[in-house]
Amino acid sequence: MLKQYYLIGWLVLLALPIRAETSDVELRAVPESTAGAAELTVRGQSVANGVVYAEITYQLPESLLAGGSIVLRQQWPEARRLQIKTPTATNFVRLVTDDRSAAQLLARDVEVVAITGEPGYEPSSIAFDVTSGVLPAGTILRFVIDRLQLPTIATTHFELPLYLKHNQEASLTRVASNTIEIRPGDFSQLSLYSSSIATPGELVDLWVRLEDEHGNIAQAQNLSLDLLVNGVFTERLDVVAPVQKIDGISFQAAGTYQLELRTGGGGISAISNPVLVSDKPYSIIWADLGVPAELLPGPHAGEELTRNAIGRYDLTLPTNHEILDDTSVKSHWQSLAAGGASLMLSKRDTASFTIAKPEQPTDLRRMVPGNLQLIEIISGGSVYDWFGNRAAMMGFRVGFTGSNYGHQYPGQYREVNTAIWLTEGQHWFDAMSKHQTYVSVGSKIVLAVSPMNLGLEPTRNLALQIAAASPILSVEVFKNGNLFKTRRQLDTGGSRFRLVVDSSSKPFSRLMSRPRNAREWVGYIVAQGAGVTVDRVGRYWQIKPGRESRRVDFLTRTHGLDEFLEFELTSVNADTVIEIGIASGYEDVAWIPKDRLPKPTPGQKFLIPIDEAIQGGTRTFEVEGYRDSVRIEPALVPFETSMRYEFDDPSTPQIGDYYYFRVRLQDGGFAYTSPIYVGDFE
Q1: Selection from 330, 318, 247 nearest residue 288 by Cα
Q2: What is the pTM of this model?
Q3: Which of 30, 327, 458, 552 is the most exposed place for a label (fewest CB within 10 A)?
């Protein structure tokens, strides 16, 4: 169960003195630690997702009295929590010391540790509190993790930092420490990335990456690969570098193209994102925005992030680093009372703009309209479109962005891509400052909106051109934050259906508060008088067939965007009834909003007759101020991977009205355009 990651308040009493352990095992540390610093050493293969023996050795520079603490903090953005509960499991932390005094330590699991000047939302921290006696200066502490599971991200700067707290009122002070290298695994997959928009005859950028199973750049291999365009063999290419640009690729006719590289036998292959070839007067670059530089500590963190992203992203913006073109990116991790978190981009100290962040929401009331240009509406696996709507309804002209770094279920989501569209000769900073962005999750979907802004015409016409790697399930239009029009095709056969579950991520009130936490859905589907087989599921589902053919058990979670399970009924008749059971549970506790603590989620059972299911049947229920929903509706028949959607709005226009599109794909991917404003004549 996912909820096992959110245990709070687990306490373990460590009685001292503890005889220091001895070992003749040779440990490796890279680089050498400095005098007075903590020393991290590991034994085993330090490869991505590997399991190693780890030890942090530190000699106390001064005595710790009762009320003092030593905190071991975890930094990688994955759900790999340090723990003190199960000694036989991975990431179990124990403390060994040579102290012979009567000092007593209490180990506890800390959900979030707030440290001045550093981002919060850490996956876990373990605190060792001095409860009585004195831990004298000079004591050698050894923090041992027998089975430390390393992150899936390869890096040259991995650490598990220590912090000291001299008394209950003092703030945490970071202890200097060395770092170690985590190497990528063996080559196991190809990835292929292309320009998304090109004009006829224009050369496109095409990059191939040799990766391990986690997407890290692997060692170079000599490969001879076939290049196919829309399934047709074009040429053979030799790939000799771990990241290699393929030159000379262009398309003479308008249309949508996908490229594929594969070995002669087809055992290893990669398909690019779609390329829309047309006379569009702009191009698209793909950005990875707001990468926390603390994930890769050290002076060269920005360079390492950029190197790891080559071929995958055109632009990587790490926080708190000077980057290309004299542009700096500064993160402001402030308390809600001080204005919340935000990201500011500045160019040569002459121009700047702000990206508002949703997880510790930027206080929009304090923002200057000309400075706030972008709103992050997707953070990892969570959707916060309510935050973009709140800014737009307040009169801000903003675009939408996304980030790969979220704090609800870190690491368990599809890749988040922010598209920046550029006119000829335009710089990306200028484009972002004019909110020329959109967000695509799971893959790089091409979205071409026309027009880009709207006047006060009696009838407003909007069109969206879509090119995706997966068939398109639906296109939705939102006006002033509400669903306005939908384009989708229902399966009218009467035997294929979708179970859709939904929960909001909005804060409980409009006061400054963190969003609602995610929730799990543990339940079942039973068809009375028919059999059930699962056809397709969204990203987060786990499915288990029941003992009888008419039952399916499931586990999923939602946080701001609904999730669907598609199933088929056999031997349906007019008396068939679909039963949906939802087990009782509890909302997650990644953070504690002040206006509403996480609440229990009640158990529910719903009966939906087949006639109602064919029309679409929804059941809603209260969860302490929220209305979560369960819906049964006919399955959707997907469109092609490319389509154009167009609509008219003949209603009376108002300055400040805005529209945006949401596109859903068959593979679970989705995308949001930025808002198109009425009266925006930029």
Answers
A1: 318
A2: 0.87
A3: 458
